[in-house]
Specification:
binds copper (II) ion, about 5% strand, di-copper center containing domain from catechol oxidase
Length: about 325
């Protein structure tokens, strides 16, 4: 049942037009878990990602040379405003959907953005287990490649003194190993990963996912998915970021994490969790947002349905209302 009517809103001023959510959505691509893809589908997804690196940038952000860099640069530029806020999960929903659209419209990809359900891989009862890192997603032949070489972090690079890193250097195999795949933003560098089994196994615990799904309203859902910025308490958002990125890995860097193509499968899964939570009471949850406008400002001003997010030059501004429905027109995909 589709519950959103036409919701076109005129945009008053500002650099970017607001997309009216009255747009249509026919034949939404279905997003699948990485393991559900055939070998051929996996190949076509990875080829499309590599294709983005060969298309000219349009973000206008210094250092972004190609369409892959664009997404990383926009996330970087917005980092101070999009985490530990009420719109965290919806901003990232829009961001992943825009990337999916680029893959489909500019690089000939014909399916939905895949996601990585890390809770299928975590072993919360055995924190030293490396099972997750042998998951199909890290396969060097038809996945994203594996860990980086081991590099011991200097104290300056590890101010929180996070232990247990097993990589930190350049990814050594798979389609995103140098020199085939290089980052340009913020500096020319290889893709780095730094697997930390303890974080992966505890943060991707299926019980934590259940806890997030059990939240009663959007505000508490949004807060539960990020929890607190601490390594003493697990949070599912941190699983892909710090389980895979650790201290020195690209996806573990708060601002530049979309430089690891895996980012979009990690956030795809968080988005699927939001979507699954919404399905439990769709009528209410297509019309409910909350949480602070400013990071951690839990007693302050909250976002509303009319609150607008932007992703720079990559797409028009969008209201949170228009981002609640994955098939409302601003967005067009399903799970
Ligand atoms: Cu982010």
């Amino acid at each position: 049942m589709r519950l959103l009517g036409s919701e076109g809103r005129a945009h008053k001023g500002g650099a970017f037009p607001t997309i009216a959510s009255s747009g249509t959505c026919t034949n939404p691509p279905r997003r699948l878990e990485w393991r559900q893809l055939s070998k051929l589908q996996k190949r076509s997804y990875i080829d499309a990602v590599l294709c983005l690196t060969r298309k000219k940038a349009k973000s206008g952000i210094t250092g972004a040379l190609n369409r892959f860099d664009d997404h990383q640069a926009v996330h970087n530029s917005q980092t101070p405003n999009i985490h530990w806020v009420g719109h965290f999960i919806l901003w990232h929903r829009y961001f992943v959907a825009t990337y999916e659209k680029a893959l489909r419209e500019e690089c000939g990809y014909t399916s939905g953005q895949p996601y990585w359900d890390w809770s299928l891989d975590a072993e919360p009862q055995n924190l030293t287990s490396t099972k997750a890192f042998h998951s199909a997603i890290f396969n060097p032949h038809d996945g994203f490649g594996g860990n980086g070489n081991f590099v011991a972090p200097t104290p300056e690079k590890n101010p929180l003194n996070i232990t247990g890193g097993t990589g930190g250097g350049c990814v050594t195999n798979g389609p995103f190993a140098p020199p085939r795949f290089m980052l340009n933003f913020p500096n020319h560098d290889c893709l780095r990963r730094d697997f930390i089994p303890r974080i992966m196994n505890s943060f991707a615990d299926p019980k934590l996912v259940q806890k997030v799904l059990a939240q009663k309203d959007y505000t508490s859902f949004a807060r539960a998915i990020e929890n607190i910025p601490s390594f003493d308490e697990p949070n599912i958002h941190g699983s892909g970021h710090f389980g895979v990125g650790g201290v020195l890995g690209t996806i573990g860097n708060a601002a530049n994490s979309p430089g690891d193509p895996l980012f979009f499968l990690h956030h795809g899964n968080l988005d699927r969790i939001l979507w699954a939570w919404q399905q439990k009471d769709l009528k209410t949850r297509l019309n409910q947002v909350g949480g602070p406008i400013a990071p951690f400002d839990y007693g302050g001003k909250n976002v509303t349905l009319d609150f607008e997010v932007n992703i720079g030059n990559l797409a028009g501004n969008a209201t949170l209302k228009s981002l609640l429905d994955t098939q409302g027109g601003t967005l067009c995909y399903t799970y």
